[in-house]
Design brief:
By secondary structure, the protein is α/β, with parallel strands linked by helices. Helices cover 34% and strands 18% of the residues. The strands form two sheets. A twelve-stranded parallel sheet has the order 1-2-3-5-7-9-10-11-12-13-14-15. A three-stranded parallel sheet has the order 4-6-8.
Length: 374
């Protein structure tokens, strides 16, 4: 195969042809890695096949640093997200060393905007001690102010923080954060003083929470005055405690920002009945809601579903996705969704049924041409 001449600025192959070669090899990760390291004419589109999201774990962290440190490295600007796994035993030690070696060369990763930390509840992110500097290493990612990188999206999997206050310290290290996803556990869930801990957070627009963090973070974000400014909120694996924490936010009369709400609820997992769920999720005060997703297991009966949807007083909702138990009792919901209150509704998707099945039980929605295929 011909290659670029290192002694001239004129490549033997045009960039478009190099792209075609790389595209044809997209499933050969070894070849892609070789191209990434040596081909200076490799255009960004091809680099994304392998490096847009870089997954880092104990077995490849040293190799990643070695490649990134090379003067011939061409994939640095293609990296948009680092996904770091702390699942293996001893992860804190290699993560601390990895961070120490990465931060001085992080300026090369000029398009980095996402950081994800995954692991298990056994991975405890604690304050610096002789065994673990994971907390300080994580904070250092947010405080790399001398590089062009700006972490705008932070995702924390089911890892464990010693305290909610420690978690807040980590959040405060990311001044440009727009998106936060969290499923972390907190050994000490004592809430910090309102407005006393998080110094930079008003630009966060997207929150994605999953149990066991939902209960604590809903309270934290509401107390800090952050939650009412969020435009996209996603809640998964809700428990009874999570629903109790959600209620004060839903009853807030100043809910003029939330446009997209996603709720994933398992009645058996949570131990909460559908009737109680529908009562707790009162959307009367949501005055900007445009897209609602309610995904349940098992499918929600018509009674609780009608109670839930009846609380929507805002007349600007455009999209609805919901799990419904298909029975003859869905007539009341069919009438509701085609009433004047939902005049702006453009799409209705029944997550638990095919288009044909849903049309049999929601004929008015089908006739209005708003029923959508899953």
């Amino acid at each position: 195969m011909a290659s670029n001449n290192p002694n001239t600025d004129t490549p033997l192959f045009p960039a478009e042809l190099t792209d075609l070669v790389v595209d044809a090899s997209r499933n050969d990760r070894q070849a892609l890695a070789a191209y990434a390291l040596v081909c200076k004419q490799w255009t960004p589109r091809s680099r994304y096949h392998l490096f847009e999201r870089a997954a880092i774990f104990a077995d490849n962290a040293r190799q990643f640093i070695s490649l990134l440190s090379s003067p011939h490295c061409t994939f640095a600007t293609a990296i948009c997200e680092l996904d770091i796994s702390l699942a293996a035993s001893g992860s804190h030690r290699w993560f601390t060393e990895f961070s120490r070696r990465l931060l001085p060369i992080l300026a090369k990763v000029s398009n980095l905007h996402g950081l994800a930390i995954s692991g298990s509840r056994n991975a405890v992110i604690r304050q610096l001690d002789e065994d673990s500097g994971a907390r300080e290493a994580l904070i250092a990612f947010g405080r790399q102010n001398q590089t062009p990188s700006q972490i705008t999206a932070l995702k924390l999997g089911p890892v464990t923080f010693e305290s909610l206050v420690d978690f807040v310290d980590v959040l405060s290290a990311f001044p440009d954060l727009h998106t936060l996803a969290c499923a972390a556990h907190f050994q000490d869930a004592t809430q910090p003083e309102p407005h006393g801990e998080i110094r930079v957070f008003p630009q966060v627009t997207t929150i994605d929470l999953a149990s066991p963090s939902t209960n604590y973070l809903l309270g934290l974000l509401l107390n800090q005055g952050i939650l009412p400014n969020v435009t996209n909120l996603s809640l998964s694996r809700l428990t009874g405690g999570d629903l109790s924490a959600l209620t004060p936010f839903l009853h807030n009369p100043n809910n003029n920002a939330l446009q997209n709400l996603v709720i994933k609820f398992d009645s058996i997992f949570s131990g909460v009945s559908f009737d109680l769920f529908a009562q707790r999720v009162d959307m009367t005060q949501l005055r900007a809601l445009r897209h609602l997703v309610v995904e349940t297991a098992p499918d929600m009966p018509s009674g609780p579903a009608y109670t839930l949807l009846s609380t929507i007083s805002w007349t600007g909702i455009e999209r609805l996705e919901i799990s419904l138990l298909l029975t003859e009792e869905l007539t009341c919901i069919d009438n509701l969704l085609t009433s004047a209150r939902f005049s702006t509704l453009k799409e209705v998707t029944i997550l638990s049924a095919s288009f044909v099945e849903a049309g049999q039980f929601l004929p008015l929605c089908a006739a209005r041409n708003i029923l959508q295929q899953v």
